[in-house]
Specification:
- By secondary structure, the chain is an alpha+beta fold.
- It has a single domain, classed as 3-Layer(aba) Sandwich (SMI1/KNR4-like), CATH 3.40.1580.20.
- About 30% of the residues lie in helices and about 30% in strands.
- The chain is built from five helices and twelve strands.
- Strand 6 and strand 7 form a beta hairpin.
- The radius of gyration is 16 Å and the shape is globular.
- The model has no long low-confidence stretch (mean pLDDT about 95).
- This is Protein Syd.
Length: about 180
């Protein structure tokens, strides 16, 4: 059985092999290590690279008085990359990634808002890791207690469990080959 790190690395390898030219949003101020050729003011080619230091959740955990499931910290603390367009059982998913340390801080701010919303709604705490491409309101989330990967609508509870673990879910995701940068 693969570790989560091995599953993440294997997915990144499949992605690089199957999507030889990758595009992402260009944020000039970030000076991201993934950036390659700048296509235009909003678009850049990218190549994934390992984070020199994993995204640190300690301050957020302290502020929210909670611990995040280890799979969440591992997913967002391993690679810098553009978001990954994936196919999961015939459904296109955008798996969120961080492009740089600055983007990681932005992600932590967004996670904070999501957790506070869940608490206000008295729902189990989840962390979003992706979006359903068919509908922006459909989130791919990790249940913070169990680590299960599932689907939920914004503001609702997880309604469909896709996998009991992130590693198993990632092993079943395949790169979605895009035909051009505007796909």
């Amino acid at each position: 059985m693969k570790t989560l790190e091995e599953s993440i690395d294997a997915l990144m390898t499949r992605y690089k092999e199957n999507v030889p030219v990758r595009y992402t949003e260009y944020v000039e101020e970030w000076n991201s290590p993934i950036y390659g050729t700048v296509i235009d003011e909003n678009t850049v080619e990218w190549t994934p690279c390992r984070q020199p230091e994993a995204l640190n959740f300690d301050d957020l955990e302290s502020a929210l008085e909670m611990s995040f499931h280890q799979s969440i910290k591992t997913l967002f603390g391993r690679w810098y990359a553009g978001d990954l367009a994936l196919d999961y059982q015939g459904h296109t998913i955008s798996l969120l990634q961080t492009q740089s340390a600055e983007d990681g801080e932005r992600l932590l701010e967004n996670i904070t808002g999501h957790i506070l919303m869940k608490r206000r709604l008295k729902q189990p705490e989840t962390v979003f890791i992706g979006l359903g491409s068919e509908d922006d309101g459909l989130l791919v989330t990790i249940d913070n207690q169990s680590g299960a990967v599932g689907l939920e609508w914004v503001g609702k509870e997880q309604h469909d469990v896709l996998s009991d673990s992130l590693a198993a879910w990632l092993d079943n995701c395949q790169p979605q080959v895009e035909t051009d940068k505007n796909s």
